[in-house]
Specification:
The chain has about 150 residues and is mainly alpha-helical. It has eight helices and no strands. It has helices spanning about 5-15, 20-35, 40-55, 60-65, 75-80, 85-100, 110-120, 125-150. The N and C termini lie far apart (about 40 Å).
Length: about 150
């Protein structure tokens, strides 16, 4: 039995993880990357928790991810096995960049950690740069939309 919302996961990632452990390893890898600048900042952790909620992780799996200390952890030991350069590998890179930027700063240490993860996952440097640009553009569009069409309170 899956311990996450299969529909939400399939919509975001195009397919389901092979196992709950695979999903947890993916999320732990994200924590390692966002901790690369010395700590996982509160805004980054808040964005991660929001993602866990959207994916419908059970409280037990969410707790396992949240209690994992990514600072100083070995990225190679937590990365799940994926098709080199495949969709899931590129999505992990994208998720890592989005989370790393959640505190308003994409630190060089985080960029280096994303690059290392990409290398391990077979995602080439050009694709990483393209994903970084996409994330930046999406962020700019979101802020422009809010400025042009503010929600009434």
């Amino acid at each position: 039995m899956a311990h996450f919302d299969e529909t939400a996961v399939a919509q975001r990632y195009g397919r389901l993880p092979k196992s709950d452990d695979d999903a947890v390893q993916y999320l732990k890898a994200l924590k390692v990357i966002i901790s690369a600048d010395g700590e996982a900042h509160e805004a980054e952790l808040k964005a991660l928790r929001k993602g866990l909620e959207k994916l419908g992780l059970t409280p037990d799996l969410a707790k396992e991810v949240e209690s994992f200390d990514g600072h100083g952890a070995n990225l190679e030991s937590v990365l799940p096995k994926m098709k080199p350069g495949g969709l899931r590998a590129r999505m992990l890179v994208r998720d890592a960049i989005e989370l790393s930027r959640a505190d308003g700063k994409y630190a060089q240490e985080e960029k280096d950690s994303v690059a290392r993860a990409a290398q391990l996952l077979g995602v080439n440097e050009t694709t990483v740069k393209s994903i970084e640009s996409l994330v930046e553009l999406e962020h700019a569009v979101k802020h422009l939309r809010k400025a042009l069409f503010p929600k009434k309170k």
